[in-house]
Amino acid sequence: MTAGLPPAVLAGYLAAIVLLMLTPGPDMMFVLANAARYGARAGAVAALGVAAGEAVHVAAVVAGLATVVAASPVLFTAIRWAGAAYLVVLGVRALRDAGRPNASADRADGRAGRAFLRGLLTNLLNPKMILFSVAFLPQFVRPGEGPVAAQLVLLGALFVAVQLTVDLALGLGAGRIAGRWGDSRWTRRVDRVCAVAFVALGIRLAAG
Questions:
Q1: For helices 148-181 and 185-207, what crossing angle results, to 10°?
Q2: What residues form the membrane-spanning segments (predicted)?
């Protein structure tokens, strides 16, 4: 056994998070938007930013901070509204840029550099990730089979690894397609779809 967790529990956990990671959400749409607009490098950097944000959520769960945030209506609502506003802003910017030609190489490099921070914020400002981390990870902990903190760290590390693998594959794949097709209608359509998705997700998040 690893960190006190039976192989059957780990197998069930991995199957669950793989299915979850394949479900579209703000993080996936952000990675896709960056890759389609600025290339594979920007998509990969965005994926790293998202993974870093999830690592912070996992650390908060281990430290007990996530439970405090989830139990505070005022703090949780503030994060929810900040996350909703941020998604809407991302959507409006993506919609504004959808009709423009792709950026030059220098500008694209700059966008790639900022993609990490934006990916980090996209994940951190999603209050549903806080609730998810608090509610989901402990379900697979077996207190009688080892230190709880060690089990949470292992579960969190596996979650981040799977998320990073899926998002990297998406970012690199979409970026290569966008680079091959250049300023095609496909790229502009992806921009618009991501823009609408960001705004819709922001509105949905604000509505609770």
A1: 150
A2: 12-33, 45-72, 78-95, 115-136, 148-170
